[in-house]
Amino acid sequence: MLWFWILLRITLSPILYLVWRPRNSGMHNVPKRGPALLVSNHLSFADHFFGPLPLLRPIYFLGKREYFTGKGLKGLISKGFFTGVGVVPVDRSGGSAAEEALQTGLRILREGKLLGIYPEGTRAPDNRLYKGKTGVARLALKARVPVIPMAMINTFELMPSGQPYPRLGVRPGVRFGEPLDLSRYYGGEDDPKVLRKVTDEIMQAIRELSGQEYVDRYAAEVKAELAGKAPRPGNDDE
């Protein structure tokens, strides 16, 4: 992945800065070395580009295994791209898959890397912030590493779902907040009430950075309703 990340920085970063002139802030809050958990809102496919853009080290994200299982040339390109931008495949179907995702995240952090998490679990259907899933709290409390809130700005306007290409005339950006002190919750990673409280605290920190309206519902449920489908069965820990 590292060679692809270096290649992207050399070739793509100058284009992104020149064309979209992103507004970024708070990079000093992200440690220059060692593990950290970056928790972010998720508005757009463009988040994968503009979120890590101002940092001098890669961010690894947990992503759907389906990104890596496509067939033919399209599947090969998809697998190569998502591997290159730091997406690590995990099963997100719920149940025991949540434990697999947790262990994968812990492994990445034990390796001293930056791990990015979208607590909403999916891209938001609009420009609002939705309820976080408690898997992010379990990971944060087990790993006991710095937890950095991260807010994507204007990426929904730049490239909303269904938009094949980023729009011109929109200035996206990312804001990194100060590390959250969750030490008072250590040891409570198996208590559902603690996990919900920690998750809500994380989402509040993201909201303060992003300025978004908060919706106390899961984004996946709202997206399913908008599509006229029944919500997929799952649990709070996905």
Helix-strand layout with pairing:
Blueprint: H1 2-11, H2 13-20, E1 23-25, E2 36-40, H3 47-50, E3 59-64, H4 72-84, E4 87-90, H5 96-110, E5 114-117, E6 129-130, H6 135-143, E7 147-153, H7 155-158, E8 173-176, H8 192-210, E9 214-215, H9 219-226
Using brief descriptors, characterize the structure shown:
single chain; 238 residues; alpha/beta; 7-stranded mixed sheet; two-stranded parallel sheet; 9 helices; 16% strand; globular
Question: Per the principal axes of the C-alpha atoms, what is the gross shape?
Answer: globular
Q: Approximately what portion of the residues adopt beta-strand conformation?
A: 15-25%
Structural class by helix and strand composition: alpha/beta
* Quaternary assembly: single chain
Terminal CA distance:
25 Å
The major β-sheet equals: 7 strands, mixed
E-strand count: 9
Strand order of the largest sheet: 1-8-7-2-5-3-4
Average pLDDT confidence is 87
Rg, please? 17 Å
- What sequence of helices (H) and strands (E) makes up the elements? HHEEHEHEHEEHEHEHEH
Helix content: 25-40%
- Sequence stretches where pLDDT stays below 50 over 5 or more residues: none
Number of helices: 9
Protein name: Lysophospholipid acyltransferase family protein
Domain Phospholipid/glycerol acyltransferase: 36-155
InterPro entries: Plipid/glycerol_acylTrfase
Keywords: Acyltransferase, Transferase
